[in-house]
């Protein structure tokens, strides 16, 4: 068994990760972005609710979850454990810079099909620079925080940080636990993952299927929809699962 504390997070290379996964946008990621965008548009009603604080736990070198939350957030916490990923996020969010890399425009273009995103199209880089707050932190240690967020994302994190079932369950619990009652969320999982490589380093994973994800979400989530995506990014997993729902309010 490989625990989260034992994985080589100091060696996680965001440049390799982005080049391998996002430099050429995949149809499956475009579909995920469209589904998440619709979920948030349906909830926030064109800005009738908000602004709220958003959080992306284990943000890594992936900006599209934060871009999905952007129109409705006064701030977006990008919680990240790996030091090089934090450096990447800080560069992408630097308000004194030129804005996030053009590689992410393809994902924004999917969101811009919705009027709520199209309305802030010209300001998207400026808004991201103002809202994004890269912050060092460990998802498993969120249980002690009293801070709460009004919308949340967790993409390919809970099952991709260790091979421990206990840590997988704890990660899902910590994520949902920091959301305000009724807050919308989006969480994605690699199904039956055996682990993965970034650069020259191997990272652990815990094998999950849809029933196990549902059991993990059930104590703190409500009105969850499940989208099983028949796409394999690499050898050693059996598709992806996108879950869209809300933090329990009872």
UniProtKB/TrEMBL annotation:
<dbReference type="GO" id="GO:0032259">
    <property type="term" value="P:methylation"/>
</dbReference>
<protein>
    <submittedName>
        <fullName>SCO2525 family SAM-dependent methyltransferase</fullName>
    </submittedName>
</protein>
<keyword id="KW-0808">Transferase</keyword>
<keyword id="KW-0489">Methyltransferase</keyword>
<dbReference type="Pfam" id="PF01234">
    <property type="entry name" value="NNMT_PNMT_TEMT"/>
</dbReference>
<dbReference type="InterPro" id="IPR029063">
    <property type="entry name" value="SAM-dependent_MTases_sf"/>
</dbReference>
<keyword id="KW-0949">S-adenosyl-L-methionine</keyword>
<dbReference type="GO" id="GO:0008168">
    <property type="term" value="F:methyltransferase activity"/>
</dbReference>
<dbReference type="InterPro" id="IPR000940">
    <property type="entry name" value="NNMT_TEMT_trans"/>
</dbReference>
């Amino acid at each position: 068994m490989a625990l989260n504390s034992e994985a080589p997070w100091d060696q996680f290379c965001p440049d390799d990760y982005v080049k391998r996964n996002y430099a050429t946008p995949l149809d499956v990621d475009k579909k995920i972005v469209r589904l998440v965008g619709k979920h948030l548009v349906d909830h926030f009603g064109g800005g009738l609710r908000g602004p709220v604080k958003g959080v992306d736990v284990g943000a890594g070198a992936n900006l599209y979850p934060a871009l999905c939350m952007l129109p409705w957030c006064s701030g977006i916490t990008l919680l990240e454990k790996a030091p090089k990923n934090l450096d990447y996020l800080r560069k992408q969010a630097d308000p004194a810079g030129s804005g996030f890399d053009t590689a992410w425009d393809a994902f924004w273009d999917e969101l811009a099909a919705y009027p709520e995103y199209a309305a802030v199209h010209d300001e998207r880089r400026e808004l991201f620079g103002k809202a994004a707050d890269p912050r060092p932190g460990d998802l498993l240690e969120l249980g002690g925080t009293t801070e709460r967020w009004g919308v949340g994302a967790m993409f390919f994190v809970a099952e991709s940080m260790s091979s421990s079932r206990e840590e997988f369950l704890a990660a899902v619990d910590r994520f949902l636990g920091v959301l305000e009652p009724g807050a919308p969320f989006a969480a994605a999982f690699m199904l039956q993952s055996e682990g993965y490589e970034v650069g020259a380093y191997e990272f652990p994973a815990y094998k999950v299927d849809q029933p196990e994800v549902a059991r993990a979400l059930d104590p703190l989530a409500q009105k969850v929809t499940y989208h099983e995506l028949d796409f394999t990014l690499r050898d050693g997993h059996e598709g992806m699962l996108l879950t869209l729902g809300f933090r329990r309010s009872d």
